[in-house]
Amino acid sequence: MILLIYLDSHLHTPMYFLLSQLSIMDTVYICITVPKMLQDLLSNDKTISFIGCAVQIFFYLMLLGGEFFLLGLMAYDRYVAVCNPLRYPVLMNRRICLFMAVGSWVGGSLDGFILTPVTMGFPYCGRREINHFFCEIPAVLKLSCIDTSLYETLMYACCVLMVLIPISLISVSYTRILITVHRMNSAESRRKAFATCSSHIMVVSIFYGAAFYTNVIPQSYHTPEKDKVVSAFYTILTPMLNPLIYSLRNKDVAIALKRLLGRCVSTQKIKVGNISRNY
Fold this sequence. Notes:
By secondary structure, the protein is mostly helical. It is built from 10 helices and no strands. The mean pLDDT is 83.
């Protein structure tokens, strides 16, 4: 998806620029969990260093927070496209798009820089065996020698706030979109508006559904088995599904993919033709 958006000039629009940032986050998400998980499955040495665990926590927090903010800003992009199409080039110019992307990455990074040192600063003792497939904060805190309930409460409040801010933006944006679509007289215009937003709605529903369980539902309702399943869902499955959702439900992406494949086939034919002439 990243390569397709970069190579096809027809996809050099604000929506696809933000989508490319989402794809980058999804790619890094998979890179910080899947390689280590596969190594643990194929090897008898199922250990991770203290620094390696801290790195996993930092990138997990950065990408989780970054994706929260980015999906909220993508909802605003869809609101402008549907409700203010004539002002779209002004309201979503290059500078604003860059600000949105950088803001999402910085917002997620702040979460990582604040929580990672605190989490890894607790004393850990006992067997030091994490009941998880990667270093997720709740699983790591269970190994602490001291009471971490106050920190967990503060972290829970922080996570709820981080979820509520983008969800509020998404809710307001789509409420305005629904009002605008309801006022449209043309059935074709309504169909285009829903087609424009459907992929984003699906991605938001999948990601925020899993994130809501992990970050908003109190830990007393969690079990290690459920946590592993939900974590695998939004750190592995969701990043793999996002490009498919946007490519299968988006005509622009499908057309761009056909153009790229057509170009590759044409290049191969030219090369074969040149070789034939040489002989």
